[in-house]
């Protein structure tokens, strides 16, 4: 992965610089100098890269930019992402009206009020995990023992997937999200997950429960393959994202002790703090892809029909015109206009759940582990540069 080549042209994805929380320097430079610019992708194809907050919202909010990966010109970030998206289509990669029809079947499940009702249950899960983690030890890997199992347990509960199978789908999710997985591994993980979910959906016909998969089966509107594709999207998006955000947030707070103390002193800051951490860390880090369906001007540049566009969320979330001193973590700023959950019709469906889980996870950790600290030097932490969702592989902590 390179940044700015001798010719001055950019390749994407670009590498991060010395600060593992900051976007690649090449993206930040592009935002300041050439905010709508051509970049070269892994297969030598080119697309437009958009880095300013205002322009990213303009593209993602305009349905003339399609999210359909089957349209010619759609920019893929790696061979793996291409295999993954064309293998099994979920509504993430559909345009309206099909997208809206599918998404509508789930909107009630993720409405703020519905999700808030889960608060006591999510709190209980967080407490149980910390009870177990701290019972007879004073150090642990926070990813394995808390950050990952918390959202995993919650999404299993919502979908009606047995948590006993979490090892199976976590392993396959990892393969799907890893840029270094081989195409063969991707196809295999994909088909095993779809087979698993298709079997589960068939089983719900005779053994219904109150989970989402059972309800979709009972509604009878979707084919078993469509239910499996939807289940896969929710299962992968539901645990990998929040897990990485939780661990990375804890690390960012440990690196910003003044902010950490503020949050400990005033737990009422938690809602705003989570928004700021979402902005500052922007774990969907390699860009959202779209393709123009007609000629459209963005930031003064005409993008022709059939040309691909890559919206760089982490660059947009540090755009000074939207967030002053954007490079600083400031838990008391108003960060609500961030685009960490995307923008427009595809804006994250699970965001109320992600917010709830993050608020509870961080608040519980801070309240129960007042002596929390890193158990390895910061330099030894391994970041997930080569994963679709950014984070840390492990987070050894002591208390
Ligand atoms: C911190 C956690 C999360 C982050 C940062 C995040 C980020 C995102 C982003 C950026 C998109 C937009 C993709 C695009 O426009 O191409 C998205 C879409 C989506 N997310 Fe999340 N997400 C998170 C958690 C979750 C959770 C917990 C769930 C479900 C349980 C979820 C389910 C979805 C779904 C279903 C979509 C597709 C929406 C659509 O196409 O209409 N996400 N997410």
Provide the succession of SSEs: EHEEHEHHHHEHHHHHHHHEEEEHHEE
Strand count, sense and barrel status of the largest sheet are:
6 strands, mixed
Spell out which ligands are present: protoporphyrin IX containing FE
In helices, the fraction of residues equals: 40-55%
Strand content: 5-15%
Query: How far apart are the termini?
Result: 38 Å
Kindly state the number of beta strands. 11
Order of adjacent strands in the largest pleated sheet = 1-2-3-9-6-4
Structural class: alpha+beta
Number of helices: 16
Low-confidence stretches: 1-8
Mean pLDDT: 93
Radius of gyration, CA atoms, in whole angstroms: 21 Å
Coarse shape: globular
Descriptive account of the structure:
With 399 residues, this protein is α+β, with helices and mostly antiparallel strands. It is built from 16 helices and eleven strands. The chain has helices spanning 25-33, 53-60, 79-87, 98-107, 112-116, 119-134, 142-147, 149-159, 166-177, 183-206, 212-219, 224-255, 257-265, 270-281, 313-316, 351-368, and strands spanning 10-11, 36-40, 46-50, 65-66, 139-141, 288-292, 296-298, 301-303, 308-311, 373-374, 396-398. It is globular. The model is unreliable at 1-8 (pLDDT under 50). The site of protoporphyrin IX containing FE has 24 residues, from helix 12 and helix 16. Protoporphyrin IX containing FE binds next to helix 12 and helix 16.
